[in-house]
Amino acid sequence: MISDTPSSTRRQVLKAAVAVACCAGAKIGTADAAVPTTVDQITDPTSTAARNMFRFEPDFVKLQPGDELVFLNSRSHHTVHSVPELWPDGVPAVSIAHQPEASVRFDREGYYGFRCQRHGQYGMVMLVVVGRPSGADKVRKVINIMKAKKRERAGFTRLLDQHDHS
User: Fold this and answer.
1) I need a labelling partner for 64 at 20 to 30 A (CA). Which of 19, 107, 113, 166 fits?
2) Distance CA 77, CA 29 (A)
3) Which CATH number fits domain 33-164: 3.40.50.1380, 3.50.50.60, 1.20.272.10, 2.60.40.420?
4) pTM of the entire predicted model
5) What DSSP state is assigned to residue 49?
6) What pLDDT, on the 0 to 100 scale, is given for residue 30?
7) Is 160 a residue whose pLDDT tops 70?
């Protein structure tokens, strides 16, 4: 490229253009693909309560149909398993273990419950709400009668309450 403009000035103009594009929300080098939400699985040995020691972070996520979650750190004793009672009919179950990273795509509106198989008893649960599903009262009733430890049911109730107030 032949130009009368010094290269340092061209670099400054390019930097400014990139900054403006980023601030304006433009996506450079992507095809409008949504960035998936990541969910980490935490073991916090400094926590004084089991509910906070083992947890998904975040433990409540709202998505739109077609969105994707990326689960991190399904290693050692942490796993990600769908909860059959809190899972839409006809949607394949999820079972993730021994993987540093795994993606799950949500194509149907609904409530999706997850638990860590080993730490669910301590309240390591997660709720994903896709779209604007109806039936929160039915989900609440299912939580109250499902076969699960008290802390697990309490965790799902807390997350459903969080959804009701969001």
Assistant:
1) 19
2) 38
3) 2.60.40.420
4) 0.77
5) S
6) 37
7) yes
